[in-house]
Amino acid sequence: MSNDERFLEDITRLASIPNRGPATPGEKQAAEYVASRMTELGLNPTIEPFQSIPHFPICWVIHSVLCLLSCVLAFWHPWAAAVILAVVTVSFVGDSSTRFYIIRRLLPRRESRHVLGVLKAKQAPKKVVYVAAHMDAGQMGFSLNPEKAEPTARFFKKHLGMQPPLLALIFYVMLLNILSALLTGIFGVQLFTAVMLSITAAIHFIPIVIFTPHEFAKISPGANDNGSGVAVVLELARRFKDQPLPSTELRFLDDGSEETYMYGMACFMNAHQHELDKKNTYFLVPESCGNGTPKVVFGEGVSWIERHSPELCNAVLAAAQELGYKEVEPIILRTGGTDMSPPTVRGFKAAGIIAMNENDYVPNYHWHGDLPENVQVETLRKVTAIFEAAIKKIDAFF
């Protein structure tokens, strides 16, 4: 079987699993398939179960509902409302950045799992490189319909030169909620404080309407997001298995529950970060990398942008340029986060590649069209080659 056929076989097998959502039986099937492929490659994989809280849409709805109710409470008890709003805002920042979880911990848990295969270095390892991609697929909420989502991305790129920072608006509205409650506490219920409370409270109906259906939406086939990333991880394992690096241990991680807003990778980092040397551990993440032009992710986030390791990101970008892929360029993701965020916010070096079209939009993102026939093998080849070259750079020069 050729490399191209192997790419498509892995992606097709994953996309054929029904309901491969986070912490589902479908995700378990994906983990078993990935483990079998790693076993074929001689990586002696381990499946690591963990308790996931996959209900991030409802979690964020609860944040907005609490903010709305607190604004109503502020008409009578503004100082108490301000305290509640501050706690909810802190919870949202922690949840959306993966730093910590407050409100989400009140929600039901389900079992998820990671699959990890290790390729030892020829000598005693001085460095560790994780190549990580998530196995689960995401929900197809109505707001993700490409007929609406892509024109929004096109508008923001054309007129503002950036991705739409729509999720950041939730954070900014929360700050306005707190300000409104504080002003009400200082000046009492006046016309301007009543208007501020009413307007900033009403805005929360938007995320409530958007995120509630996401909790119950069907799961996309997930060929590109992120069957493509899993295929790249497996291909890199194949390329390095017969030629281990002199001083770098490679760890191939296919994680679960990324589509819970990176909760799975956050759990992995919380469980293992104390075993790792921050100076010599690197995370490379192929994310939705099978359709469009590869872009190196230099930063991402919701409430604010978390900048990934400039040293590592520039090494990945340099690898692309040296291979002749001049079209590869940096990007800042303002529509959310990927599995690069949990390592970065915990002080580790991370970089990743995502593939996008001319509108800085991932084609068929979380939609019915995320099928194997819409994956471009040429893009997968480029991404794999870039990561291979970047890993060699880390081994030789970092």
Question: Could you walk me through the main structural features you see in this protein, from its secondary elements to its overall organization?
Answer:
The protein is an alpha/beta fold. It folds into 2 domains: 3-51 and 111-140 and 219-397, Zn peptidases (Aminopeptidase); 58-105 and 164-214, no CATH class. It is 49% helix and 16% strand. Strands 1, 2, 3, 4, 5, 6, 7, 8 and 9 form a 9-stranded mixed β-sheet that branches. The model has no long low-confidence stretch (mean pLDDT 96).
In terms of topology, how is this protein built?
Layout: H1 3-15, H2 25-40, E1 46-52, H3 56-73, H4 78-97, E2 110-119, E3 127-134, H5 146-160, H6 168-187, H7 191-202, H8 205-216, H9 223-241, E4 248-255, H10 263-272, E5 281-287, E6 293-300, E7 306-307, H11 310-322, E8 329-333, H12 341-345, E9 349-356, H13 377-397
Parallel strand pairs: 3-4, 3-5, 5-9, 6-8
Antiparallel strand pairs: 1-2, 2-4, 6-7, 6-9
Helix pairs in contact: 1-9, 3-4, 3-7, 3-8, 4-6, 6-7, 9-13, 11-13
Low-pLDDT runs of 5+ residues are none
Overall mean pLDDT stands at 96
CATH class of the largest domain: Alpha Beta
Distance between the termini: 35 Å
List keywords for this structure.
398 residues; alpha/beta; Aminopeptidase; 16% strand
Could you write a compact summary of the structure shown?
The chain has 398 residues and is of the alpha/beta class. The protein has helices at residues 3-15, 25-40, 56-73, 78-97, 146-160, 168-187, 191-202, 205-216, 223-241, 263-272, 310-322, 341-345, 377-397, and strands at 46-52, 110-119, 127-134, 248-255, 281-287, 293-300, 306-307, 329-333, 349-356. Strands 1, 2, 3, 4, 5, 6, 7, 8 and 9 form a nine-stranded mixed β-sheet that branches.
